[in-house]
Amino acid sequence: MFRAVERGNRAGMTDALRDCTVVVPTIGRPSLDVLLDALATSTGPRPAELVLVDDRPTGTPLSPERPGLPPVRVVRTGGGGPAAARNLGWRTARTGWIAFLDDDVVPDPDWYDRLAGDLAALPADVAGSQGRVRVPLPESRRPTDWERGTAGLATSSWITADLAYRRSALAAVGGFDERFPRAFREDSDLALRVMDTGSTLTRGERWITHPVRPVDRWVSARVQAGNADDVLMRRLHGPTWRERADAAVGRRPRHLAVTAAALGAVGLLAAGRPRAAALAALGWAAGTAEFAWARIAPGPRDRAEVTTMLATSALIPPLASWHFLRGAVQHRQVTTWRGLPDLVLFDRDGTLVHDVPYNGDPEQVRPVEGAREALDELRARGVRIGLVSNQSGVGRGLITRAQVDAVNARLAELLGPFDTVQVCPHTPEDGCDCRKPAPGMVKAACAELDVDPARCLVIGDIGADVGAAAAAGAASIIVPTPVTRPQEIAAAPHRAATLTAAVADVLAGTW
């Protein structure tokens, strides 16, 4: 009996990994090889796929292949940043779970086994499972300021150094908010939005090691750009976001006070008030000295660390204040992140191709200008695409279904493959539930690809396309042609002048 239960548990864990894709965004750091070696030698069942997202603008192709890895696929963003890289990774995956790893971590030898155990039989209301992080610090001396900061990852919540999400949970909120341009706060923002849907996140039992990577002496000054991201977090999640995200308060109020003292000293001196200027300068000096000592005292106190702390402690308050003010201006008005749709469905005649009534001849298929490029842009971002087409000529006996299929095959030759093709062969008099503006084809396409209609968009040229989308609970964009009636254009919730412009709106998140 015990062995049967053990075999059952093992089978469940294997099934969990088979329904999981590991996504690793990378900028090609040497640490990627260490990660891949660890994954290649880890014990346990392999996931369905390993997706490496190359986030370099340019560079030689990655060479990730090595024995022991699951099937590996490399996709490229062209340099979109961490949020965009992770989004491309999960959108191109087709499994129920997505496990994110950073390219500078080292999974434990039993990482696969423990990931499988963490995911197996999780309740449906659990949307994500976070791994556990250790940060090795030097044993022969006290850690530097940078090392202490990195060590904070060991107790941080919802960091994507090792975090697995249900794909459906990512799709429901549009994935990572790409308005966060750095590897900072984008993971906390995602976690809060997922939990806002009523789902929960949990901690698993798998472990990774996060080494302290080497940096130059000015890194603490550069990371102050994250103060702008903190403003965005407050705009999106309100004043209590830090408590919800388990994020430290930091020293921003003191940085603002120290910066104000410095500016006051300069202004008072220029105004001919040297005594007041001296008092303001004394306040700046005292605040800077206190900040520098707070960073020096717990550290090694060697010459290099002390001089770095002194220099950067003078720079950080004004930099933090500048980025905070920059963020306040940049993020004056923000909306909830919607991300890209999971599926874009296109009408065929008049939208993707020039309309030839009741066309049954593949040789007459002529795509509209920019159609191939527009569809390829969607594919490159991991968005699935499909076709929904009324073909009443079949029901009227003017063309055959085989001719319709031949025309659609020619369209795929010219524009690339479609993830789903839905055709209604009925006449308006048949009263079917698939002919647009009925929602049948849109719902069938979503069901085939396991897409929530709310994450689907229909692009067409007449009111029937818009109506089918609305009836199915999907969004729509109308691209008018000479046959589009003015009242259809006026009633459409979203309009675009051309197919290219419509896809540009989709990629910009304004769908």
From TrEMBL:
Q: Name one GO molecular function term.
A: phosphatase activity
Q: Where, subcellularly, is it found?
A: Cytoplasm
Q: Which GO terms describe its biological process?
A: carbohydrate metabolic process
Q: So where does this one cross the membrane?
A: none
Keyword Phosphoprotein annotated? no
Q: Does the keyword Metal-binding apply?
A: yes
List, alphabetically, the CDD domains matched: HAD_HisB-N
* GO cellular component terms given for this protein: cytoplasm
Cite the InterPro entries for this sequence: Glyco_trans_2-like, HAD-like_sf, HAD-SF_hydro_IIIA, HAD_sf, Heptose_bisP_phosphatase, Histidinol-phos, Nucleotide-diphossugar_trans
Which controlled-vocabulary keywords does the entry list? Carbohydrate metabolism, Cytoplasm, Hydrolase, Metal-binding
UniProt cross-references to NCBIfam families, sorted A to Z: HAD-SF-IIIA (TIGR01662), Histidinol-ppas (TIGR01656)
Q: Which PANTHER family match?
A: D-GLYCERO-BETA-D-MANNO-HEPTOSE-1,7-BISPHOSPHATE 7-PHOSPHATASE (PTHR42891:SF1)
Family under the similarity heading: Belongs to the GmhB family.
Name the chain's protein: D,D-heptose 1,7-bisphosphate phosphatase
User: What organism does this protein naturally occur in?
Assistant: Modestobacter italicus (strain DSM 44449 / CECT 9708 / BC 501)
